[in-house]
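Hi,

I'm pasting everything inline rather than attaching a file, because the server keeps stripping attachments. The sequence lines come first, and each chain or strand is labelled.
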Amino acid sequence: MRLSTTSYLVLGMVALRGPSTPYDLKRATSRSVGYFWNFPHTQLYSEPERLAASGMLAVDLEDSGRRRKTYSLTPEGRAALQEWLAAPTPEHFEMRDVAELKLFFNEAGAPDDDVPKLAQEQIRQHEERIAVYEDMVSRHGDEDWARPRMITLELGLEMEHAALRFWTALATGTIDDLRRERDERDPR
Amino acid sequence: MRLSTTSYLVLGMVALRGPSTPYDLKRATSRSVGYFWNFPHTQLYSEPERLAASGMLAVDLEDSGRRRKTYSLTPEGRAALQEWLAAPTPEHFEMRDVAELKLFFNEAGAPDDDVPKLAQEQIRQHEERIAVYEDMVSRHGDEDWARPRMITLELGLEMEHAALRFWTALATGTIDDLRRERDERDPR
DNA sequence: AAACGCACCGTACGTTTCGTATGGTGCGAG
DNA sequence: CTCGCACCATACGAAACGTACGGTGCGTTT
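And the predicted assembly:
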């Protein structure tokens, strides 16, 4: 049985939260890890089933109305998760950025310049996302249980600010400054 | 007929390159736009077929051995592409970062600390990618045809440096400095 | 206390994407 | 001339995706 990244996502979430229903997972991921690995909620119903079938999760079926399924980690599940966590990842992150695509193909566009509008919208997007992240920090930043999970927010914030700087520079025609400042900061 | 992002990718590539075979597209994307929107090469064989069926591309079938198909843009195809380019994107970029996942779930791992190795490997990844991007800049940076397409490289570089700063700070225990420096640079 | 409405929760199903694996093609070396 | 390897193309099964629908049960209204 081959485990995908989604599998480990589920195993990890159950490990952090304790026994969970798919709906619990859905809510928990959409507010945290979902920001850097998105997937449809249907996966959170089918994937635990697969994992239970291969002994990674134990399932407890509610017999009343909603017939909720509550999944918990088995020793095998925990072992698989820890093995995965212990191995560093040779993969580079993967991006999917429609705005960047549009910028790349810009020269094939109609004569009038579409870039300012594109940049403006991206600036909006990134500022909004930064606000969301900062809000999380200020609401949970000093709670002990949250601390270790907050660290990834810093990466998110670095990336958001990087993108924001780029689109802002593009909108104001100061791309050259961008490169110069980067060279000063992280000399090659 | 519904066009996906992949459709526009193909339309855009044919627009920039002129008439192209799927293999041409594959090679061209893998060295450029593939860095921020990856997809398997099989898509580059099936997608143009779809687009040709709906009149966005014209196909010219080689009758000799390899039976190459060369696709070129029709007026409808160009119109569709330009319409797409003219509309700013409401979407935020999407990330898929296995390393970030591992970091997030770290507390569920075995007692010994897996983070240093993880960080080290990511630093390697990002330095390597930066080298690739810088090489592109230095090889094509002063060619006129390449200039407009080089601009997205700057976004790539900003992102890479952001990630590199994060993992480096994580490895050296200077995450707090990271935040402080960011605040100085981009005051909230 | 019955009826209603809405937020909560779960799953079925058709479509698209993905990756792998396989097989043909033709140039250049020997 | 033929052999080998890089080039090129597609088939096919498996996974991921998104949407759309349908049930559940709590709180509110009458």
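Residues 115-140 of chain A form the longest helix (26 residues).

If the labels don't parse on your end, tell me and I'll reformat.
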